[in-house]
From TrEMBL:
<feature type="signal peptide">
    <location>
        <begin position="1"/>
        <end position="22"/>
    </location>
</feature>
<comment type="similarity">
    <text>Belongs to the TonB-dependent receptor family.</text>
</comment>
<dbReference type="Pfam" id="PF00593">
    <property type="entry name" value="TonB_dep_Rec_b-barrel"/>
</dbReference>
<feature type="domain" description="TonB-dependent receptor-like beta-barrel">
    <location>
        <begin position="516"/>
        <end position="759"/>
    </location>
</feature>
<dbReference type="Pfam" id="PF07715">
    <property type="entry name" value="Plug"/>
</dbReference>
<dbReference type="InterPro" id="IPR012910">
    <property type="entry name" value="Plug_dom"/>
</dbReference>
<dbReference type="GO" id="GO:0009279">
    <property type="term" value="C:cell outer membrane"/>
</dbReference>
<dbReference type="GO" id="GO:0044718">
    <property type="term" value="P:siderophore transmembrane transport"/>
</dbReference>
<keyword id="KW-0675">Receptor</keyword>
<dbReference type="InterPro" id="IPR037066">
    <property type="entry name" value="Plug_dom_sf"/>
</dbReference>
<keyword id="KW-1134">Transmembrane beta strand</keyword>
<dbReference type="InterPro" id="IPR036942">
    <property type="entry name" value="Beta-barrel_TonB_sf"/>
</dbReference>
<keyword id="KW-0732">Signal</keyword>
<protein>
    <submittedName>
        <fullName>TonB-dependent receptor</fullName>
    </submittedName>
</protein>
<keyword id="KW-0812">Transmembrane</keyword>
<feature type="domain" description="TonB-dependent receptor plug">
    <location>
        <begin position="123"/>
        <end position="226"/>
    </location>
</feature>
<dbReference type="GO" id="GO:0015344">
    <property type="term" value="F:siderophore uptake transmembrane transporter activity"/>
</dbReference>
Length: 786
C-alpha cells in the first residue's frame, strides 16, 4: 500500500471516530471573559466540569463551547486569576454570557507569566515560531528590525542607518524567500516607505516569526519563513503617542489611536508615523586622496548623502460584534518617502547625488464572521488595491570621494544618466475559511489572488504611454486538515498548496530587433505537515516538513530599469524544509524558566542568485545553484517575579553550494562545490537582561533597566575558493553592547526612555562589510491612554 493511501485511510478513520463521539454535542454557549476593568482576557481555559470538552478565549476574551442540551458547570481558569465555576443551561443559541475573573493577588505577586497567553500558545504549537510580545517593548526607542534582531535564528543586516536597505535572514534563508505581513496582509501593499526599519514598535501588539514551514492563513510562497506583525485588536478606546530624538538628527514620531461611538457602534482607528534621519554617522579609516602627498590616506569622515525621511498615515472605520459580522472595516493609507543613496554594496564607491523618492496609496476592506452554520464555519475576507510611483535619479556627471569632493566625469555616478520611473498597480485579495467538522477536527482553506502591473521607463528618454506594462498574476490555493488528540496533547496539521503564476512582458528580440510580447506560466503543488506532542504540561516535542516553492518576484523577472535586467526564463525555487524542536517550561514559586531547542534542514533547488552581465555594470537573476543548509538554535529564558528577566539565545547556520557540475556540464566540477556560502553569518547570539521595580519613587510607577549584548562570529565576505586563501576578505567578529532605562508613571500613562546603542563605539560591519553607525544616544517620550 502506498504512503498516501495509508495517510488517507488514517485520516478517514480518525475523522469517523470523532464524528461518532460527537453526535450528542448539539448545543452551545458563547460569551466573553473580562477582568475588573472590563478588558477582554485572552487564553482563558473554559471547560465543562467532569468532561474533556474545553476551549480557550480569543484575543478579545470571546469564547464558544459546545455540549449536549441541559445544565452543566463551566469552569474558567487563567493563571493569575481566581478559578470561577458557573452553572450554565445549554439549550441552543441563547444570549451571550459575560464572565468577570478576579485577580489572585498571591499568584500575581509570585509569577506573572504562568498563564498561557497567545504568545506562549504559539511557541508551544506545531510550527517552529518565535512569538514576541512587542507591547512590552513599546517604551524603547528601537524599531522592529532592532527588536527582531535579538531573537533566535534571526539576523538583520542593514546597509546603513534609518531607512536603508536591509537583509533579513531566518535560519540562513533571506531575500525574497522571507515574506512580511501586517495582520496577514503583505506589507508591500503599504508602499516602499513602510518596512520593519521604519515601523514604530508602538504599532505592533506582537510579532510572529515562522521558520521554514508557514501556516496556510499566511497563504504565500514564502520558502524561508514569514514575519507577521499583529496590531492591537482591542475594541476599547485608546491613544498611543510617542516622540523619539537622537544622534544623527534622528526624529521618530508616532500617533496611534482608536475611538468607538457607543451609540452607533462605529469604530475609528488611526495609525501614523514620521521618520527622519540625516544618517551622517562617522565612517572610519576611509581612503581619501591627498594631492600634496600624491597618495591615499585613511581618514574619518561623515556620510554626506544619506538623509532619509518618510511619512505614513492610515485610517479605517468599521463595526464589530454585529449579527452579520464580527468585524467589518474599510480604510485607506498614504505613504511618502525620500532618501539619498550614499553607496551601494561596495563602500569604496560613493555617491553624492543619487537619490530615490516615492509615494503609495492603499485602499482596503476587511471582513470576519465566526460561528456560522451552528458554530462550524469561520470566514474572513480581505480585498485591497494599491498604487505606487517611485523615482530613482542619477543625473550628476561626477565622481565623488568620501570627503565630499568630486571630479567631472564622462558618465553619471552609476554609469548611465537616468531618471527611472516605476509605476505599480497591485490588486490583492484573500479569502480564508475554517470549518470545524467536530470538536478537535477542522478543515482550513485559503485562496490568494495577487495581480501586479508594472511600468518602468527612463523619463529622460521616453514617456509612460510609450511603454507596454509588464504584468504578473499569482494565485495560491491552500488547504489543511488539523486534528487534536488526548485533550490537545497531540496535534497534527496536514496541508497542501497549489501555486500558479502567469507573466506577460515585452522583450527585445536580438534577431528581429523588435519588442515582442512574451508570456510564461508556472503551476505546481506543494505539501507538508506539522505535529506537536505535549509529553507533559511543560514538556513538548514538535516537527514539521514542507515541500515549498518560492515564486519569482517582479523585480527579479522584469528588472528594475536601473541595475537589474530582465530574465523571463527564471524559474521558481523549490525547497524541502525539515524542522524539529523541543521546549520545556518550569515554574517554582516566584521563578519561571523556559528552554527551547530546534534543528533544521533546507535543501533548495534552482537557487536564485545574482549574476553580473558581461557587457555592462548591471546584473540579472538566474537559477544557478542548489544550496544545502542545516542549523541548530537554542534559547533560554528566566523570570523572577516582575523584578528580573534574562533571555539568551544562540544560532548556528551552515550553508554550502551543493551544485557539483558548473554551467550544466557533466564533467567540470564547480569550484564552489561543497564550499560555504559567503557573506552569511554562521554563528551569532544575544544576551538580554532587564531589571524592573514597581512603585520605587512613587505609587503606580515602574523603573526598568535594560542591557543587551549581540555577538556575531567572523565569516567570509567572498567565496574562499577564489584567490589566495590568506587574502580573502573576512568580516571580523563583532560584539556590540546596548543599554537603556525607562520610567513609567500613572500606571503606564506617561513614559520616558533613554537608550545607548553600541556603547563602546566599536567598529561594526553589516551586509557586504558596510560600516554601521558607532555609539548613538536616543530619548523617547510616550503617552498612553486606554
Amino acid at each position: 500500500m502506498k504512503l498516501y493511501q495509508r495517510i488517507f485511510i488514517f485520516l478517514i478513520f480518525t475523522l469517523s471516530i470523532s464524528l461518532i463521539s460527537a453526535q450528542d454535542t448539539d448545543s452551545s454557549v458563547q460569551g466573553v471573559v473580562q477582568d475588573h476593568k472590563k478588558q477582554g482576557l485572552s487564553g482563558v481555559t473554559v471547560f465543562v466540569e467532569n468532561t474533556k470538552i474545553k476551549t480557550q478565549t480569543d484575543q478579545n476574551g470571546n469564547f464558544r463551547i459546545n455540549y449536549k442540551k441541559g445544565e452543566a458547570v463551566l469552569i474558567f481558569n487563567l493563571g493569575g486569576y481566581k478559578k470561577l465555576r458557573k452553572k450554565i443551561n445549554f439549550y441552543g443559541e441563547g444570549s451571550p454570557i459575560s464572565i468577570e475573573l478576579a485577580e489572585d493577588q498571591a499568584v500575581v505577586e509570585e509569577v506573572t507569566i504562568y498563564g498561557k497567553g497567545k504568545v506562549k500558545a504559539l511557541q508551544d504549537g506545531a510550527f517552529t515560531v518565535n512569538a514576541i510580545d512587542v507591547a512590552k517593548l513599546a517604551n524603547t526607542t528601537a524599531d522592529l528590525n532592532q527588536v527582531l534582531n535579538r531573537t533566535t535564528g534571526i539576523k538583520v543586516r542593514q546597509q546603513g542607518g534609518v531607512g536603508s536597505d536591509y537583509n533579513f535572514s531566518i535560519n540562513g534563508m533571506s531575500g525574497k524567500a522571507v515574506k512580511f505581513f501586517i495582520d496577514g496582509v503583505p506589507l508591500e501593499m503599504l508602499g516602499k516607505g513602510v518596512d520593519l526599519s521604519t515601523l514604530p514598535v508602538n504599532m505592533a501588539d506582537r510579532v510572529e516569526i515562522y521558520k521554514g514551514v508557514v501556516p496556510i492563513h499566511l497563504s504565500t510562497d514564502a520558502m524561508g519563513g514569514a514575519v507577521n506583525i499583529i496590531t492591537p485588536g482591542s475594541s476599547k478606546n485608546y491613544l498611543d503617542a510617542g516622540i523619539s530624538v537622537g544622534s544623527f538628527n534622528t526624529q521618530r514620531i508616532n500617533l496611534n489611536g482608536q475611538f468607538k461611538d457607543d451609540k452607533t457602534g462605529l469604530i475609528l482607528r488611526i495609525n501614523s508615523f514620521y521618520n527622519h534621519s540625516d544618517n551622517n554617522y562617522l565612517m572610519k579609516d576611509m581612503k581619501i586622496w591627498n594631492a600634496a602627498k600624491n597618495e591615499y590616506e585613511p581618514r574619518n569622515v561623515k556620510r554626506f548623502n544619506d538623509r532619509y525621511q518618510s511619512v505614513f498615515g492610515m485610517a479605517e472605520v468599521g463595526l464589530e460584534n454585529k449579527s452579520w459580522a464580527d468585524s467589518f472595516f474599510i480604510g485607506a493609507s498614504q505613504s511618502v518617502f525620500n532618501k539619498q543613496i550614499q553607496t551601494g554594496s561596495n563602500q569604496d564607491v560613493v555617491y553624492g547625488g543619487v537619490k530615490q523618492s516615492g509615494e503609495a496609496q492603499n485602499y482596503f476592506m476587511k471582513y470576519k464572521k465566526a460561528h456560522l452554520f451552528n458554530d462550524h464555519l469561520d470566514v474572513n475576507l480581505y480585498a485591497g488595491f494599491s498604487r505606487s510611483v517611485q523615482k530613482a535619479t542619477d543625473t550628476l556627471m561626477r565622481k565623488y570621494s568620501w570627503d565630499g569632493t568630486f571630479e567631472p566625469s564622462a558618465t553619471s555616478e552609476k554609469g548611465g544618466r537616468s531618471m527611472i520611473m516605476q509605476h505599480e498597480d497591485r490588486l490583492y485579495s484573500q479569502l480564508g475559511a475554517t470549518y470545524r467538522i467536530v470538536d478537535h477536527h477542522k478543515l482550513i482553506f485559503n485562496y490568494v489572488l495577487d495581480y501586479l502591473k508594472n511600468t518602468t521607463f527612463n523619463k529622460l528618454e521616453e514617456e509612460k504611454d510609450d511603454v507596454v506594462p509588464a504584468k504578473m498574476t499569482k494565485q495560491i490555493i491552500s488547504m489543511a486538515y488539523q486534528q487534536e488528540f488526548f485533550n490537545k496533547h497531540w496535534t497534527n496539521i496536514f496541508f497542501a498548496k497549489y501555486y500558479k503564476v502567469g507573466l506577460q512582458k515585452m522583450v527585445f528580440d536580438q534577431i528581429t530587433r523588435t519588442d515582442n510580447p512574451v508570456k510564461d506560466n508556472f503551476s505546481s503543488w506543494g505539501y507538508g505537515f506539522a505535529t506537536t506532542v505535549k509529553i507533559t504540561r511543560n514538556l513538548g516535542l514538535k516537527g514539521s516538513f514542507e515541500r515549498s516553492y518560492r515564486l519569482v518576484e517582479p523585480q527579479e523577472i522584469f528588472g528594475d530599469g536601473v541595475a537589474v535586467t530582465s530574465n523571463m526564463n527564471l524559474k521558481p525555487e523549490t525547497s524541502n524544509n525539515v524542522n524539529v524542536g523541543l521546549y520545556f517550561n518550569h515554574h517554582w514559586g516566584p521563578h519561571a524558566f523556559r528552554i527551547e531547542g530546534a534543528g533544521y534542514i533546507r535543501d533548495t533547488k534552482d537557487f536564485i542568485y545574482t549574476v553580473p552581465n558581461l557587457y555592462n555594470s548591471t546584473f540579472k537573476y538566474e537559477n544557478l545553484s542548489n544550496i544545502f543548509t542545516r542549523g541548530l538554535e537554542g534559547e533560554l529564558s528566566y523570570q523572577y517575579k516582575r523584578l528580573l528577566n534574562v533571555l539568551m539565545n544562540v544560532s548556528y547556520n551552515k550553508a554550502y553550494d551543493n551544485t557539483k557540475f558548473a554551467n550544466n556540464s557533466e564533467d567540470v566540477v564547480s569550484a564552489t562545490y561543497k564550499k560555504d556560502v559567503p557573506n552569511q553569518p554562521w554563528l551569532f547570539g544575544n544576551v538580554n537582561v532587564s531589571i524592573g521595580k514597581d512603585d520605587w519613587f512613587q505609587k503606580d510607577s515602574r523603573v526598568e533597566l535594560y542591557y543587551g549584548l549581540q555577538m556575531t562570529e567572523w565569516f567570509y565576505k567572498n567565496w574562499k575558493t577564489y584567490g589566495n586563501p590568506r587574502n580573502i576578505p573576512i568580516i571580523p567578529r563583532q560584539i556590540l553592547h546596548n543599554i537603556g532605562i525607562s520610567y513609567s508613571m500613572k500606571s503606564g500613562r506617561y513614559n520616558l526612555a533613554f537608550d545607548v546603542t553600541n556603547l563602546t563605539d566599536a567598529l561594526a560591519y553589516d551586509n557586504f562589510k558596510l560600516q554601521k553607525q558607532g555609539r548613538a544616544f536616543y530619548v523617547k517620550f510616550r503617552y498612553l491612554f486606554k
